[in-house]
User: Fold this.
Amino acid sequence: MKIEIITTPNEELKETGFGTLKACHNVLDSISKLGHNVKLNVCRSLKDLALTVNRKPDLVILAVKYISIKNGSDIWLAEYFAEHEINYSGSSREVLNFDSDKVLAKSHLMKKGLKTADYFTAIPGQYKCEADLPVAFPLFLKPLDAANGNGIDDLSLVTNFAEFEMKTLSLYATFNMPVLAEEYLDGQEFSVAIIRTESSKLIVSAVEIIPPQSTNGLRILGEKAKKEDSEEMRKIEDQKVLNEVSKLAVDAYARLGIWDFGRIDIKTNKSGRCYFMEANLVPGMTSGSSYFPRACEIANELTYDEVIQLIVEKGISRVPYAIPPAIVDNTAEKHVMAMLKKPVNLSESLLSSMP
Assistant:
């Protein structure tokens, strides 16, 4: 099979993606071991993308969601390759919006009956006093669409209005967009990698993430911890917790209409109740450090090469079809729910078949 990995100079992007060129070369090396004809394309323009289309690969692996064109609009790769009938990895442009917009994902899942932390958005000066705030303190503040812990530190946890104003102003000045303010959940933190296999079985890999303790005694998974890889990822030994975390993640995966793979982040409150936090649909793929492959290794003893193989096998299973069915009919969520059968008991049936 002819496979091309598509990325762009992305070190300055705040959005999620496989990572730097190192991650893309990790993916390239793994696919090469499978015997495919694979190449890595660092795309900067429409011309670069057009050349890929002209080569008519059997599958393009999308390492980023979009490429930014100078003095032009962003080009969303899923949408571009769908229009040109090129088979690609991951979810549709419509579904990827849930990755880019945390509020969109939270509001969508709340309407579906899934639990997420109470939240609101804010810009500097919007609220005049504590009584005006829609959610009571303590609150956790972060950028609306940034990833990789950008903008998150000890000051993200605010307990009074002065701290709220200061952090809101700082985030808005840095990211130039509304700030997401969430009810602070003071329980455990989990990340769940989900892969749909060639046979449409879901491999669910849930792990606990333990951030390092800061000088203030807080454990916040922020930009510094992620850059230094100082957080600990741990297998979930409590079967009840594992089932509850996995259940919520699978429900979110299905109801967001995620197609090939994705990572769902979950937190609990002190009483252990699980809440959806966000979805990462083009997760980091750096061998040895990124959450997605590490979760697969810790929870299900999958090697990095096996993770990439599962993703590739699912993608090429669509050949000779041009694009995933979820994109053809533009109803990704309905398609996924129908394929998984019995949506009411969706999670229980999947959990019972987990390896």
Remarks:
- The chain has three domains: 2-90, 118-183, 189-352.
- The chain has 13 helices and 14 strands.
- Residues 205 and 295 are 6 Å apart (CA to CA).
- The chain has a mean pLDDT of 88.
